[in-house]
Amino acid sequence: MIAAKNCASNILGPSVARTEEITIALIRRESERFRGISVLFFIPMPMRIMVERLYEWSPFNLETHLKAVWGEFQDYCGVSMPSYLPKTEYKDIDNPIAHRTNKHTK
Fold it and tell me: Cα 2 from chain centroid?
């Protein structure tokens, strides 16, 4: 399980595991790093054991649809938790050209 904790966003995942029980244990373990703050993670809704267990933890539920394939979908053998990459911005403070603005545009 990959986890990111910073001021922009707190994310668990992506992750893969053989069983729902293992995935729940990974989520519980990594969630300890985020005690007292909100953390975002996506769970696959067909994993009913995970869904029911996580609802016992009183999460905020936000549904989204992430699975899109071309052709016939072959179901996962195990649990695949997707994620996204948080937007980052790189600024080269040692490069004055990076800070130059075009004065001809408004």
Answer: 9
Reference 18, options 75, 74, 67, 77; nearest CA is 77
Token representation of residue 44: 């696959």
Contacts (Cβ under 8 Å, ≥6 apart) of 38: 10, 60
Angle, alpha carbons 63-86-102 (nearest 5°): 125
Mean pLDDT to the nearest integer, 31-36: 88
Provide Rg for the chain, Cα atoms.
19
pLDDT at 105: 47
Q: How far apart are CA 68 and CA 65, in angstroms?
A: 8
pTM above 0.85, yes or no: no
- The mean pLDDT of the chain is 78
Residue type at 66 in one-letter notation: L
